[in-house]
């Protein structure tokens, strides 16, 4: 069975954050055009935080320790990849989904689901990365939980 480096696993996390930044930036522009400056600023801040998360994961790369998948079934890597690309922020459908957002609550609900999915993914990878990166992932999980709470408080 193949062993994956921590970098390969962290690349999934980088992709999540890139897609989150893209989505929140699109929402910020959408609400700015609609004259909802408060919501535009809110999503703009979330987009910036996603970039910070991405940069944190990029800095964590370079750890040469491997992640041992021998105790996991062979489909685990495919599951994680599918989870990122199909569930959290499906890139092939992202623009279509964003264009379909017609209300503030629709945008907030999409963002809430994405944050929860991200949290689940990070909790999952935390179980397979080296000890040296777990604390950093915990911090990002806490920030994603904060995003969830901030989004939830905006729902009317």
**What is the number of helical segments per DSSP (H or I, 4+ residues)?**
6
- CATH class label: Mainly Alpha
The assigned structural class equals: mainly alpha
The gross shape turns out to be globular
Indicate the proportion of strand residues.
Answer: under 5%
Explain this structure.
The protein has about 160 residues and is mostly helical. It has a single domain (about 5-155), classed as Up-down Bundle (Ferritin), CATH 1.20.1260. It has helices at about 5-35, 35-60, 75-90, 90-100, 105-125, 130-155, and strands at about 5, 65. It has a two-stranded antiparallel sheet with strand order 1-2. The longest helix has 28 residues, at about 5-35. The radius of gyration is 16 Å and the shape is globular. The mean pLDDT is about 80.
């Amino acid at each position: 069975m193949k062993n994956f480096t921590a970098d390969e696993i962290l690349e999934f996390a980088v992709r999540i954050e890139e897609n989150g930044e893209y989505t929140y930036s699109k929402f910020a522009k959408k609400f700015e055009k609609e004259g909802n400056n408060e919501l535009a600023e809110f999503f703009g801040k979330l987009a910036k935080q996603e970039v910070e998360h991405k940069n944190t994961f990029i800095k964590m790369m370079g750890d040469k320790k491997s992640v041992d998948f021998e105790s996991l079934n062979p489909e685990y890597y495919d599951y994680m990849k599918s989870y990122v690309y199909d569930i959290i922020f499906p890139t092939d459908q992202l623009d279509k989904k964003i264009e379909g957002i017609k209300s503030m609550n629709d945008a907030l609900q999409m963002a809430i689901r994405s944050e929860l999915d991200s949290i689940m993914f990070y909790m999952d990878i935390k179980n397979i990365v080296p000890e040296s990166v777990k604390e950093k992932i915990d911090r990002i999980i806490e920030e994603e939980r904060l995003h969830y709470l901030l989004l939830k408080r905006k729902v009317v």
